[in-house]
Amino acid sequence: MPPSRPSSLASVTAPQGFTAAGGCCGIKKSGRPDLCLIAADRPCSAAAVFTTNQFKGAPVLVGMKHLNDRGYGTAQAIVCNSGNSNVATLAAGGFEHAVQMCAAAAELVGCDPHEVLPASTGVIGRPLPIEKITAGITSLKPDLGRGEQYDIAAAQGIMTTDLVEKATLRTFELDGKPCTIGGIGKGSGMIAPSMATMLIFFTTDAAIAPAVLHTALQQANAASFNRISVDSDTSTSDTVYILASGAAGNALISEPKGASYETFVAALTQACQALAEQIMVDGEGATRTFEVHVKGVGSLLDADKIGRAVTDSPLVKTAIHGCDPNWGRLVMASGKAGVELNPATFTVKIQGTTVFENNTPTVTQAGPLAELSEKMQADRVVIELDAHQGDAQAVWLGCDLSRQYIAINADYTT
Amino acid sequence: MPPSRPSSLASVTAPQGFTAAGGCCGIKKSGRPDLCLIAADRPCSAAAVFTTNQFKGAPVLVGMKHLNDRGYGTAQAIVCNSGNSNVATLAAGGFEHAVQMCAAAAELVGCDPHEVLPASTGVIGRPLPIEKITAGITSLKPDLGRGEQYDIAAAQGIMTTDLVEKATLRTFELDGKPCTIGGIGKGSGMIAPSMATMLIFFTTDAAIAPAVLHTALQQANAASFNRISVDSDTSTSDTVYILASGAAGNALISEPKGASYETFVAALTQACQALAEQIMVDGEGATRTFEVHVKGVGSLLDADKIGRAVTDSPLVKTAIHGCDPNWGRLVMASGKAGVELNPATFTVKIQGTTVFENNTPTVTQAGPLAELSEKMQADRVVIELDAHQGDAQAVWLGCDLSRQYIAINADYTT
């Protein structure tokens, strides 16, 4: 199924204290939007998680520095361009260019350049057209505002070959005060010669200390963006930023525990999962997605190892594409995950039907197999893998592997 | 390029002391060969390496038992059927069926059933038609012989959807005596609902103690079959067997060191690499293969991590398919391997041309890029990744990812 646009794109300016803008500065030959700015009225608690890839884009390096090389601190704006990822451009001044983007945004917002978090996505290895970008950022001033139209403009400014905008909104209460988390994201897109990049920007009006915000983001990230796999590859630009304005007026969350913290983490996790889901549905060449519920293993680490092995597996992904209830590939992928498993207690369900138990397939006749295959033509396939040897569990999300993925990633002119 | 048949298929009966046969017992509806027997004149030193998958086929479990659960011992025959992998059939008597295959082969060869090493490949999850198979094995007696026609029959008996037979032969000298290693293999094939399986059977007339043979096989395996990736998935049936008759008359190699041992390991490694190469060229949907030379890292472990990450990467595989000199994906895949790397010293060459150094792409103009892309249309693409931070190196072998892979693995009726 082609991804559909979320019914509402209200997102990053829904929390109190934020404005946003999108615009075009001419990086993309198509003339499509290529700039995004999210600005807070005052300095916010800020946190981030970045790609673990050893090769990091210049904006990642600058963002890390602006968050004191520990992933959290204070910031007042996020600035991002699409169309050029500013990766592998250090010799061409890439680091300085990312700094200049921050400076331009800082001047507009009225904050210190160190309080701006930068990101870039798009073609890699080409010098950033920095004059166009800084001029473009400066010209965004009249476009800044609050409301869904501004959220949409911001979400469009970070798209590469995403088919639809990605946005989410979660509301909750802290100390009787209504709080909001809004987020926009972009998923795997391809601009030759480039690679998939995931960018996620959140805002919230909850009051929460920087270090605690970082812990919450890591926790939410582990249960969402770290549990999806389009193609098992890790971009050099992946970034999640969050700004917390505190404008909601709740008592500052100053420790990573307690009821308020748990409420906040739960809302942030849901917001992360909603964007993770949108990214998978818009995965390169994806025609359907599949959930992998790993259950009954000894530790969360083991659950994640199996979840990753199964969602990464090309043989599983092609079976999902072909609507094939192929328990063999699910068993194979689970068994290679580096987790000790007992085949005798391992069970596999597809769309609610048990297909493997007692080390034996349970649906073997043509009729029931065809019926199950038909059920797999759904947009979402649910796979349950239960090792029956412990209490830990995790849910991963994958997408199928189609000819279109090959077409997107092999058939373009360099 | 479609794989071509090796010019000579002389292999497992070239070493002194072995006969082989292939035959049809009716497992495959197509009527194609589905049985293979390799018999030694007398008990041999024997060793094996098996799949590390937690879910193992019944023949793997029996083979492990016959080699004393330590991977080496004494054996006089290898028996294999294709068309049914005897995986996930324990409830249907799969283990006993593998034992019965050994018993039938033992009676024919005149040895103890424990001295037979079994293997099966093909459809999984279906009970083995054991009567057909044991009758078929018994009827192979008049078909056993020495010479290339027997080697070909044996090689054909283990094929599933391999396009060509796979065989290799290496000669060397120990103590002035001519020695030979012969081997046959099969690679990734697909019979719905099934999975890729690699089977390799070697014979040699060198005299070498079982435990030492095992060490040699592990060493050769690490530098060959453990350095290839068609699709990053690990079969539940992968098996490499070797029988050493000692008929060459060299002084028994009784320790894993010394000149004779090194000579033997070198020959066995070459034989493994030759079959590994044939398997990759015949990989599912492969149109070309690529070597990844990882250099200048701190340890062999690190070299292997990078080699695996690059040959597993769908984005690298699709770039190779599209003849795209995409240094970005090579850098990305290297950077996610879990090895600490310094982008400033990392260099990338494709077909001998440096495309990335000083954290910057070096070929950026349309003309040279097109020229390099043309060079990548070769059957073999050579990629060199040098971290310039150590002395360890390893060579991995991958194949490209094409629509045909999707077609093979998604479009079949269950």
Please provide a written account of the structure.
- 2 copies of one chain form a homodimer.
- By secondary structure, the first copy, chain A, is an alpha+beta fold.
- Chain A folds into 2 domains: 18-281, L-amino peptidase D-ALA esterase/amidase (4-Layer Sandwich), CATH 3.60.70; 289-410, Roll (Ubiquitin-like (UB roll)), CATH 3.10.20.
- Chain A has helices at residues 58-66, 94-109, 130-138, 148-157, 210-222, 259-281, 300-312, 314-321, 327-335, 366-375, 403-410, and strands at 18-23, 35-50, 72-84, 116-123, 166-174, 177-186, 199-204, 228-229, 239-244, 289-297, 347-350, 353-357, 360-361, 380-386, 392-399.
- In chain A, α2 packs parallel to α3 (130-138).
- The longest helix of chain A has 23 residues, at 259-281.
- The radius of gyration of chain A is 22 Å and the shape is globular.
Helix and strand pattern of chain A: EEHEHEHHEEEHEEHEHHHEEEHEEH
CATH-defined superfamily of the largest domain in chain A = L-amino peptidase D-ALA esterase/amidase
What ranges of chain A have pLDDT less than 50 throughout 5 or more consecutive residues? 190-195
Number of domains in the coordinates of chain A? Answer: 2
Most extensive interface between two protein chains, with residue counts: A-B, 71 and 71 residues
The global form of chain A is globular
CATH top level of the largest domain in chain A is Alpha Beta
Distance between the termini of chain A: 29 Å
What is the share of helical residues of chain A?
25-40%
Number of helices of chain A: 11
- Tell me the β content of chain A: 25-35%
Average per-residue pLDDT of chain A, rounded, comes to 92
Instruction: Count every beta strand of chain A, where a strand is a DSSP E run of 2 or more residues.
Output: 15
Q: What is the CATH architecture descriptor of the largest domain in chain A?
A: 4-Layer Sandwich
Largest sheet entry of chain A: 8 strands, mixed
Q: Measured on Cα atoms, how large is the radius of gyration of chain A?
A: 22 Å
CATH topology of the largest domain in chain A: L-amino peptidase D-ALA esterase/amidase
Indicate the multimeric state. homodimer
